Amino acid sequence: MTDDDRILIRRAGPLRGEVTIPGAKNSVLKLMAATLLADGEFTLTNVPDIADVGIMAELLAAIGVESRFEGHGRLTMVNRGGIRPVAPYELVERIRASINVLGPLLGRFGKVSLSLPGGDDFGSRPIDMHLKGLEAMGATFELRHGVVEATADRLHGADITLEFPSVGATENILTAAVHAKGATVIDNAAREPEISDLCHFLVAMGAHIEGIGTSTLRIEGVEPGELHATQHAVVPDRIQAATYLAAVAVSGGEVVLRGARGDHMDMLLRRFHDMGLTVTAMGAGADASLAVWAQGRLRSIDVATLPYPGIATDYKPLIVTMLSVADGVGIVTENLYPGRFRYVEELQRLGADIRADGHHAVVRGVPQLSGAPVKAPDIRAGAALVVAGLAAEGETSVAGVHHIDRGYDDLVGRLAALGADIERVTPGRASA
Ligand code: UD1
To answer: Are residues 163 and 101 in the same domain?
Structure first.
């Protein structure tokens, strides 16, 4: 694998079979950061095999927690207590979720030096709400040479109302509050399934949290040292699940998504239904799955992204791709990140008729896309371009595959197993 790898896709008709949905990137990275909260050996299962897990493991190793991949989605993490609360720039700039070490380190050790985070480059992603919430709990921050120096004697509980249900701010305040003196209430908290997953993990470690899954979280702090290591299965990835739904939507076919949680994708499934996709949820919890069936051309709809339980911004490139080949005109409104339409130019190279301006994109469906070389600008847009390739006649070649590797566990292998004509090639090497 190199940074020059490409994914080649040719249209192959209906997809059929079963695909297992791996654990969620946006949960596992936060669970890994939360292992800073207690000494001992943690075991995470259903861990996706993605690059960001490796980067997070490196960051945590630099701070003092060792990770060991055991295979079959099993990750053991050992916190021996020798923590150095410094998150170095070389690692932080590679991954947005590195900001999640702030809450645990500040809550438990009262001190952190954190370089400002990187990750996907889609517009500015400030952390003012994280800092304001932690300040209300007694922390002080100083920004020096791109490094946030955070200190606190012992955090105390506080009533915090977020201006916006920020995922990251909710997580950092939550993971700081578990060790604060007294009760913290987070109002207008984010309600994403990955936040609930983190709450369940913290509760299994001995934390006291009420209101899990709602927009008001109440955390009663425990003394540092009272939390303990635990085992936990990572919640399935609703964005990867949506990617396979989109793949079937543009290719036709009949596929079962093992592990996919319909109850975490309710709004999206309703809108997919409006587009003409038949999706049936089966089983519950660890036995959940989705069966998807698609035939003929999709219908256009209008969609707006919103915090959970609304349509996630991370689904949007997939939806725009589906609308590109649907019957009619769809308007997509982005309410979270202004700059998040960069992949539109790439879809236009494939013949999509899209006009994007500020927060809106108008997508006029065309009967068929036509294959071309394109480049993935970020994780989700990269996967959407692969899906677009399934709907394009001729060959589509997607570059920037390292972005897709950050969040997708063997997208190529999984789609190939469903009958897609897709392969990954490394320049200078014969294709597999
Ligand atoms: C997480 C996800 C990302 C997803 C996003 C929204 C991870 C690693 N990433 O990102 O994939 O797209 O949720 O569902 O889990 N904001 C501020 N100030 C802050 C914090 C956020 O203005 O202090 C703004 C952001 O710029 C953005 C919006 O709030 O416009 C949402 O951000 P947030 O929910 O915090 O997203 P992330 O946690 O960064």
So the answer is: yes
Which position among 4, 39, 49, 120 bears the catalytic label?
120
Higher per-residue pLDDT: 412 or 126: 412
Which residue, by CA, sits nearest to atom 25 of ligand 1? 125
**CATH number, residue 280:** 3.65.10.10
Considering 183, 212, 233, which residue would you say is the last residue of a domain?
233
Q: Give the type of residue at 119.
A: G
Model pLDDT for residues 193-231, shown as the tens digit of each residue = 999 999 999 999 999 999 999 999 999 999 988 999 999
pTM of the model: 0.96
C-alpha distances (whole Å) from 318 to each of 98, 138, 315, 330, 370 are: 26, 42, 6, 13, 17
In a shared domain, residues 80 and 40:
yes
Residue 120: active-site member: yes
Q: Are residues 40 and 100 in the same domain?
A: yes
Give me ligand 1 centre to Cα 74, in Å.
27
Q: Which of 50, 95, 125, 267 to mutate to test the pocket of ligand 1 (most atoms within 8 A of CB)?
A: 125
CA of 167 to the centre of ligand 1 (A): 6
Q: Give residue 315's domain range.
A: 6-22+237-425
Q: Note whether residue 431 is domain-resident.
A: no
Contact criterion met (CB below 8 Å) for 419 and 8: no
Name residue 95's amino acid.
I
Residues 62 and 31 in one domain: yes
Instruction: Using pLDDT thresholds of 50, 70 and 90, give the confidence band for residue 122.
Output: very low
Closest CA to 379 of 304, 306, 314, 305: 314
Q: Which residues contact 329 (CB under 8 A, 6 or more apart)?
A: 300, 362, 363, 364, 365
Residue at a domain's end among 177, 199, 233: 233
Ligand 1 center from residue 163 Cα (angstroms) = 13
208 lies in the same domain as 301: no
Give the integer Cα–Cα distance in Å for 82 and 99: 20
- Tally the domains of the chain: 2
pLDDT per position as a tens digit, 69-108: 999 999 999 999 999 999 988 888 888 889 999 999 999 9
